[in-house]
């Protein structure tokens, strides 16, 4: 099951995934991970047999685009295609909300993943939280 998190439990499930993947596995500080956009973002959580497995969020960006952020899948679920499911769900919802596309700062190791979903790289590689990223855009 995949859904937009509306209950406090769903929101906390998503935060727990992000803490595991970004803070514990990748070394991002908790202060950087939990940011000023938490309350203005739509948080998406994917459940595998009622257990939280993957997360992502999107929010208003600029020029008619939504920004996708904090896409993460817990290790035991990384071979199920759940990252793709989260991205497809977010893009579907963004389209339904009237956005003309989505943008994201994708980690460089995931560039190919996003390209397979139709994203195009714009600009050069850059560091965010000491992790290489690319700015990428998908127009619906």
From TrEMBL:
Pfam family, one: Acetyltransf_10
A GO molecular function held by the record: glucosamine 6-phosphate N-acetyltransferase activity
Annotated coiled-coil segments of the chain: none
Protein origin, superkingdom: Bacteria
Annotated ranges, domain N-acetyltransferase: 2-140
InterPro entries hit by this protein: Acyl_CoA_acyltransferase, GNAT_dom, GNPNAT1-like
Family, per entry: Belongs to the UPF0039 (ElaA) family.
The name this protein goes by in its record: GCN5-related N-acetyltransferase
Organism in which the protein naturally occurs: Mammaliicoccus sciuri
Lineage: Bacteria, Bacillati, Bacillota, Bacilli, Bacillales
